[in-house]
Amino acid sequence: MRVILLTVSAGAGHDAVCDVVKQEWEKRGAHCEVIDLFNCLPSLFKKTIPALYLSMVQVVPPLWRFIYKKTNTPYSNPFLFRRALWQGANHRMKISAPSIIIATHPLATAVAAKAIRDKTFKQTPALYSLVTDYSFHGMSLTKEVTAVFLPDKNETHSLQRTYPFAQFIHGCISVHKKWFEKIDQLDLRQRLGLPIQGKIAAISGGKEGLLRYKEVIKSFEKEGKGVWTLLCFTGENHRAAKQLSTLKTKHDVRTFPYTPVFSDYVKASDVLISKPGGVTMTEALAANVPTIMTSPLPGQEEENEQRLKEHFVQSSIKQVGKKAELLVNNPKKMLSPSQVSTAELVDKMLLLYDGFEAKKQAYVGNGSLYRMNHILTMKQKQKEKGEFHT
């Protein structure tokens, strides 16, 4: 069996999920390949499109929020498509001739769905949309999608009732096993050269370092009692790392542009301060580290924050220091949302694939008719809803 993991390298989370799922598929003997849509773009767009995205979320968040909401419609054709733009990805997928395509991003789902719609493949593959945030986005569902896997059990049931002709399955956001490993915190601190008895906060802005680190430290300067060790993970944001190296503060500030033992530093900390990215929050739940969510990116991270407010602490960036003090003195009991394991996730995908192969030839006509009927029904419901509000 040949499996393609189709992803978008917007943040390190999608890459991490692909790595874990790939390992699990390879245990089953499958030939698994990861394809990054951004790496398949024409040379002119390889850097400009990711840079444009980063500019929007930082400089004009309302614009990205508008685009996120505008495309958040199931069974629609997004305005992001031009055939030449995704030709490289389509060519890679065609050569691989996959039995299954697993899309880990809404955009990846839409691109794979269009490739199937354009009859790119000799044999139509099953298309699984693997949601890696705690909220569903409409681009993750097209008529070509075999099933949508969601980490939130309640949302899975809710969407199944709303779209009865689609298939929604309770899944997970796969993270590395090292996040689940229990480690003695004192021994870990000693090994990493951290204060054994001091207060430690890990501050993460993701792969791109999209966090106002200076303001976080100012908050600790104002509200933090005693001396904190602040571990700032700035990712690819070299400018932020340089600014922190010259910052004057009473706290012990340590900067890490990148480290392969990020999980160890987080487990050694009293609190994690981070944007509410889906994968980072899942890692925090696995490690059982008290977490403060702050500065969410528009769109998906804002929705993650709302979904996870029962599990973590929400805070403005100016209140982070105060919230960290409260959290250390009065630890909040972490409630882990119900999720399946990666092994169970792949088992469900295999079971679905057996059914997909059996029904592909026998019910292709009826299946298309049922899905079209569902699309027309949903459009009629939206029209009636609009008339009712009018």
Word description of this protein:
By secondary structure, this protein is an alpha/beta fold. Helix content is 46%, strand content 14%. The protein is built from 15 helices and twelve strands. It has helices at residues 12-27, 48-59, 61-70, 87-96, 106-117, 153-162, 185-192, 213-223, 238-245, 262-267, 278-287, 300-307, 320-329, 342-362, 364-389; strands at 2-7, 31-36, 100-103, 126-130, 147-150, 168-170, 199-204, 228-233, 252-256, 271-274, 291-293, 313-314. The protein has a six-stranded parallel beta sheet, with helices on both faces. A six-stranded parallel beta sheet has the order 9-8-7-10-11-12, with helices on both faces. Strand 5 (147-150), helix 6 and strand 6 form a beta-alpha-beta unit. Helix 8 crosses helix 13.
Strand order in the sheet with the most strands: 2-1-3-4-5-6
Shape: globular
Biggest sheet, in brief?
A: 6 strands, parallel
Order of H and E elements: EHEHHHEHEEHEHEHEHEHEHEHEHHH
Backbone structural class:
alpha/beta
Q: Give the helix tally.
A: 15
Q: In angstroms, what is the radius of gyration? A: 22 Å
Strand percentage: 5-15%
Poorly predicted ranges: none
Q: Please state the average pLDDT score.
A: 88
Number of strands: 12
Query: What proportion of the residues is helical, as a percent range?
Result: 40-55%
First-residue to last-residue Cα separation: 52 Å
